[in-house]
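Our preliminary data section would be incomplete without showing what the modeling component actually yields. Below, a chain of 416 amino acids is followed by its predicted structure, encoded as tokens that our downstream tools consume directly.
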Amino acid sequence: MTPTPRAAYALLAIALVALVVPAAVSLALVAVVVIATVVDVAIAHHRIRVRRTVPRTLSRGVAARLLVETDSETPRRIEVRQAQPADVEIEPPAAWRALDARLIAHRRGEAVLPPVTARGHGPLGLGRCTFTGEGDARLLVYPDVVAAQRLVIMLRRGQFRDPGLRALGPLGLGTDFESIRDYLPDDDVRQINWTASERVGRPMSNVYRIEQDRDVVCLLDGGRLMAAPLDGRTTRLDAAVDAVTMVALVADELGDRCGVTVFDARLRSHLRPRRNGGRAVVRTILDAEPVGVDSDYDLAFRSASGGKRSLILVFTDLVDASAARSLVASVPVLTRRHAVIVASVRDPDLDTALRREPSTPHDVYASAVAIDVLDERRRVATLLEHAGATVVDAPAAGLGEACVRAYLRLKARARL
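Predicted structure:
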């Protein structure tokens, strides 16, 4: 229970008036303000109940609604405030009557919202009383599952296609013949059944069953290179985790089995490929964080090299030839038996340095360094492609979609 700044301003005004009025009048005015403040605080002390509504599960970087209400009979005199923990953004953090805010979590794992604070003000605005809501709210922050589910819906509706001037036909030609139907404008020319077309006098297309029951294994690098920041809140590992989530849910949609291994200098977690394994994959990588050690690619690749032919996606960072020497040397362990995709996040700072028009000598030097670094990355990508791997280098926002496109392309060519 405390007085408000309005009470202090009232006493300050009385102090100024005391210069021109008798002391008895000034003391009487002070007594009136003090008594009014005490009464105001007593009225504001009425206990109120605070009710907070917030989802218990969130997606990293995706806004959710936070609603805080009270049971006060005079809500216009109630100020509600929600403290912001680290890596959680609340906008606005405070409001009168009720708080209807946008909540965004920027870090995967568990987040804790402290109790809500409600401050009741008296009718005169001279006194106030602060109340605390009941308990913390524990939130579980997943990777960007919303974007992954959006891609699955597009895939289901046939709206997800490779970019280009011409549509490339249906998802996955497959190898198992299923039926013959009329030709559609989006069909690939390889689907046309010329014999049937000649017989019925109009274009006909073969329909192939998309291969299922293939194994998709994601190898997620959790070493020091993946700790490099992309912006103030996102690391390369965060972008890779979102991409793994997208690939896993797409694999569920296509009927393939999906598994994941998180590694650095050792194998930190391992999930064998399984049918409908998308949720299990997300739970496995939910709290993955980078550590400051060099990753042992040979150990991770040998752990995944056994078993039947699979699609293996390696999520790591391509820096330069010296840093990627062990990666390039270890890739043939996988490519001898499996289809391999090496996925890396493109550095936004390098793209910015190249796009920005130089205005100072420093900008010129930055552009020259960016060109050298990108040349090194292209050199590493070329070495990996010569070793039999497919290289995906995309911005953080598009890494998941680029990996899914490469995955679908391999399925369409029956390389899995």
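The first strand starts at residue 2 and ends at 3. The chain has two domains: 1-142, 145-153+211-412. Preliminary results of this kind motivate Aim 1 of the renewal.
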